[in-house]
Design brief:
This protein has 12 helices and no strands. It is mostly helical. Helix 7 (128-154) runs parallel beside helix 12 (250-268) and helix 8 crosses helix 9 (177-205). The model has no long low-confidence stretch (mean pLDDT 87).
């Protein structure tokens, strides 16, 4: 039934414009502020305890809906709740369509429109084409793959906990630096396994020889190395040179989109 839930979620995510749902987590900063006002003791907002305090109420609500409501109705209702949680947690960005729009704009030589799709990148980053590729690789893991991985392993609560961890990391960076540090460590730990699985998948469906050579040397690297590991193996898998940023172009971006699709297919199979 998990496979059916994943298939349905991916189909809905592709068919329905996710732009309609991009702000579905807009309530999260308000939720954080509410907890800060109600739980003002500084100890709570230091270390992993803060992550637990933020996540636990939402996990309990989801568990009640999934196990209690689903248990008292039918298996079909339970699966529908699981699908709803998974769909809600997918994203929340729209990196794939941003990248597709960027590629189309470049091919049509519409530079102004292309720059519109680069709002997520600091203007100081150059060359921007390679930064787009690296951002797309990381986003594919955070928005889709890692979420599906933990859904497969731990069910909808696993997917929800992963998404909450990414949100906590994102929204505490400025105002709660100590909590941000703990959330970053936790995210690195829970990202370690899916990122290695994703790197292995890139190897299977991409440039095998070069990718496997890199994988065999770096697969057991620390969680602190997650981002560099995934970006490097992703670029190698599409035949790009990670050390030659100037060579990045639209063909590299198109190859990455195809790599992501092949990766999802091989995991579904």
């Amino acid at each position: 039934m998990k496979l059916l839930a994943i298939l349905m979620s991916l189909c809905i995510e592709r068919l329905i414009n996710p732009g309609l749902f991009l702000h579905r987590f807009a309530w999260f900063p308000t939720y954080l502020n509410y907890l800060q006002n109600k739980l003002s003791k500084p100890l709570i907002w230091h270390g992993f305890l803060g992550v637990v305090v933020i996540s636990l109420p939402l996990l309990i609500i989801a568990a009640m809906a999934y196990y209690l409501l689903g248990g008292f109705t039918s298996d079909m209702a339970k699966e529908l709740i699981a699908i709803a949680i998974l769909i809600y947690c997918l994203g929340p960005g729209d990196t794939r369509r941003q990248l597709e729009g960027f590629i189309t704009s470049i091919q049509e030589n519409d530079i102004e429109r292309a720059n519109h799709y680069l709002d997520f990148l600091p203007a100081s980053i150059t060359p921007r084409e390679r930064a787009v590729s690296e951002h797309a690789i990381i986003s594919f893991n955070e928005e889709i793959f890692a979420l599906l991985f933990w859904f497969s392993v731990l069910g909808p609560l696993g997917a929800l906990f992963y998404r909450l961890t990414t949100l906590i990391e994102r929204y505490t960076q400025v105002n709660l630096p100590t909590l941000y540090g703990s959330a970053s460590i936790l995210k690195g730990i829970i990202d370690w396994l899916p990122i290695r699985a994703l790197g292995f998948s890139f190897t299977l469906v991409g440039n095998f020889t070069s990718s496997f050579h890199f994988l065999s040397r770096k697969v057991m690297s620390s969680y602190n190395n997650n981002q560099i590991f995934l970006q490097t193996i992703g670029l190698i898998a599409v035949g790009a040179d990670p050390n030659d940023s100037a060579s990045a172009n639209v063909d590299e971006h198109k190859a990455l989109l195809a790599l992501f699709d092949r990766t999802l297919v091989i995991w579904l199979v």
